[in-house]
Amino acid sequence: MKTLFTIFILFPIFIYSQNKENSSVFLTISNESKLNVIINHTNLKADNYTKLDSILNVSNFISIEKAIDFKTGIEKLDNWYIIKHNGNSKEFRNNLIELNDNYLLDIELAPKVINLASSNDYFEVNSSPLLENRALNLINASKAWDIRKNNTAVIAVSGESEYQGHEDLISNVNYQEYIYSSSPYSFHGTAVAGCAGGVTNNNLGLASAGYNPKVLLYSSSLDNQMSKLIDALNRGAKVVTISQGSLDYNSYYQSIIDYGYNLGVTFVAGAGNGPSWENQFLLYNSTCDKDNFGDNLSLPGSGECLVYPASFNHVISVTSVSHSNMYGVPVYLNIPSANLLGYYNYLWKDVHEQFTGNAASSHNHNSKIDICAPGYSVPALYYDINNKYTNVWGTSFAAPMVASAISLILSVNPCLTPDDIEYIIKTTAFNIYSITENQSYIGKLGAGRLDLFAAINLAQTYKANYIQNISFSLTNQIIKGHTIIVGSSVTSSTPVGAVTILSGADITFNSRQYIELKPGFEAQQNSTFYLNVDENFIPCP
Questions:
Q1: Does the predicted TM-score (pTM) go above 0.70?
Q2: HSE-CB for 19 with a 13 A CA cutoff
Q3: Which pLDDT tens digit goes with each residue over 143-196?
Q4: Which residues of 150-177 are buried (b: 16+ CB within 10 A; e: fewer)?
Q5: What CATH number does residue 419 fall under?
Q6: In terms of residue numbers, what domain contains 45?
């Protein structure tokens, strides 16, 4: 039995390696001649573009490049360019907007991005693998595994700069964009990837909620790198998890999310790590959206900011609840013999605040949150070869846990659309608003806490394929579906139907879950039919 090593960080280690300060502006250039003018901006004066020339030179123009190197069929994305410069980004953007040029449109700052892992000044000593069980048991993972363990889904882990070839991860890695690294800056990527696809049931380390999904590891963020998203799709990804966040809305990134969504990709992202995490954006004089894009009603530090990509349309936004103890009001402990002077019980089960009664200890909460999952003191993989396991805090780790769970849901029913998946996890979520300690967050924690067991149960029969009310007899063909019921009186709420297989016909019924023959099913003499139930059968395109 391995002992978990708990990480204790007193400074924002990830800001150094991961933050991306604005040095670029996005814009749409719909006119090729205008594009050529910008590319060769030394000739601007001769072409009567003196004002644009001045803007580019004052901002220390570096380069202009196309954001996407292939056609998507979406005009905004196909004409998306990135201007890199060394000047003041906001001033540069405003000057371009003031040109009022009909061929320079949708001028936006490149968002600032910060990882969604957070440091914490309290950690459990002598922790053990029981920590893992408490986190996964909260979402009823082990009960879900009783229904299905064979995970056929692929998760793309997005925007992590470093991964380590960890003993409890590497066999589930289908693709790695860059080579493995072992350094303090590989901590975040390794921990996130392990929450998404840590190897399960190998008598080693930790487990993942999805019970061995395969993972694709990208250093590029798939919500702003279209080519990487296409690469992930080509490698079979149906789920993308993102553990970075920005307070800056960006319509180009929303367009990429829309593109993936229309191709059946479910995006999952961390909702933000609360007031202290938001305060990092004060370095950039940032404001934030509080309810909808563009309202700018809040300064960072409230814990209520909308964080992107989590708050984009078609993204499942995940915030944290605790998982360690039972419900209840925290008890102040003053027991000198136990060395518990001034110690408060904390991490109450399904409570949003880490330290109950202290809103500053919570992760983000707002109207865009969809679901909650364990995000405080979550067992995870660690980069250090000598200390391979740790406890982590952050929606960076709650989000890939949800993504991992979604991959198992898709393994049960691969025909589910992103909207279906969102409906299933929300409909089956545990209501955490009834807990006294969560009363002040009503409407800001989404549908509640993920319940994987309940979600798997609903996914099994969701949009089942019932073959009924057939007005003609079946001839040579193949009938396929997620779940097939043939015959009359399929359910008490659906009309009576019947199926007759004609003499000489050869019919195959293919199903992923089960096939049930009801009264009214008839196979005539000299006909043949086959019932093929295969959990690996893919009933949808």
A1: yes
A2: 13
A3: 898 888 888 899 999 988 778 888 889 999 999 988 777 777 788 899 999 999
A4: ebbbbbbbbbbbbbbbbebbeebbbbbb
A5: 3.40.50.200
A6: 21-109
